[in-house]
Model the fold of this input.
Amino acid sequence: MYKSTAAELLAKALNKSAEETIKQIERPKQLQHGDYAFPCFALAKEKRQSPQCIAAELAAELSHEEFSAITAVGGYVNFTLDKKLAGSSVLKDILQQRAAYGNTAIGQGQTVTIDLSSPNIAKPFSMGHLRSTVIGNSISLLLEKQGYDVVRINHVGDWGTQFGKLICAYEKWGEEEKVRANTIPELLKLYVRFHEEAAQDEHLEQEGRDWFRKLEQGDAYANKLWRWFRDVSMEEFGRVYELMGVHFDSDAGEAFYNDKMERVVKELEQKNLLSLSEGAQVVRLDEFDLPPSLIKKKDGATLYATRDLAAAIYRKETYKFSKSLYVVGHEQSLHFQQLKLVLEKMGYAWSDGITHIPFGMVLQDGKKMSTRKGKLVLLDKVLEQAIQLAAANIAEKNPNLADKEEVARQVGVGAVLFHDLKHERIHDFEFSLEDMLRVEGETGPYVQYTHARASTLLSKGGKIQGGPEVDGETAAAAWPILSLLLQFPDAVNNAVINYDPSRIAKYVIDLAQAFNSYYGKVRILEEDEKIGARLKVVAAVASVLEEGLRLLGIRAPRQM
Ligand code: ARG
Done:
């Protein structure tokens, strides 16, 4: 709105297109320099004039009611919004639209499939899968805010040679009772034991492969065991999803594609894309300087890549997606590059819409948390601990809080999610339970606490009175807040464009900080003629914080 007004004014004066001009408009580093800045350095060359001169001329020439000042500062034209006007209008928008503030129709009529979470059965839910779950969930919510139809797919790792090995191990050393009592750790133990013993006994690997072949050929006993492993694993994962409030539209995992791969292999054959490499069937990608994509092993067994190929085609046919996203750690970048290129070689133009959204690792003492070294921090344990700590906090500070358990859950889970999402998606970060739960600093509980503070003010302040206008004095004092509120739609858009929820996490931190500093300076509930205007600011902050947290998959309790 305001930015486009500035762009139009500039474009008209310079005889350029407004679309080009708007791209050059920046945000001044400091709020006192105004709300938008147009740099004149590129024009200086073109016009053979100093940027200062150009800026001064433009500033003198331009005016518009939306801006209280247009000034030249060091080669920039700075635009300062009329605070009363812009403040009144953003508060009106937010209080009318509430959670819908910042919604757009950019994605209307388009379907996006998103592959997220996708843990491997019979193994613990790892931090990597946590990242995929929370990043994927947030991206889904953000896309929905822009009007896209989102299909969330949990591509569970439930197929592959490892299940042959697991069945083999269970046959040799497994005890049903133990597995029933302590499913995933017991299955993991069996799997680890298989590898230890296979190091001594070379026949074991072959036995494992034989079991997988039986499984792929539909052997009833092997399938019964597999189904059992899958069911109990999914039950455990389900508990974690429920805690986090994440749901899926499909949990068609790798096994789902068993009967859908042959067709793809045939198609590859017909399109002359398969070649033999040491007995295995591969699609060569030499022209892209990439290693070949493995389609079938020497013994005819299919692979991870084969299943992803079948899945991609199935998803296109079933959901008619315009984009197909995969939220998977960056160690799988090559795999997704290959997937996309094989589809392209098959002649599928829609392969363009396939996008891998990689993310960094969770570190512990500077190293990747790993399943194998037994250093693994189990996710359900982390969530449990975070909830317990949050509950202890409530017991100490607010023992009479209604709904204590639910609030503890929202705060504990929110802390874990926020800690993950506030880091730029692609960066590795260090895991720290103490950090997550602090009520000061850049944490989920800090934002939730700020939202609860605003909600308390609102319930104490009573009904918001006064017309649509906000007076100039209130608008000026609350300007750091109002300016951020104006930026929320941009924050949503940037988060979507970059597939990076950290934009929203940073945004809610900034807004919470701006609000807390306002709260420290201004007596919000003072009974004067401006209390109505101040309460509007508070209500808008509460609304946008709640919506910002929602987009991160985090709840905003009214009291805590
Ligand atoms: N189960 C895999 C893993 O944990 C991730 C699957 C990702 N999705 C996919 N379509 N390949 O490593």
In short: The two ends are 37 Å apart (CA to CA).
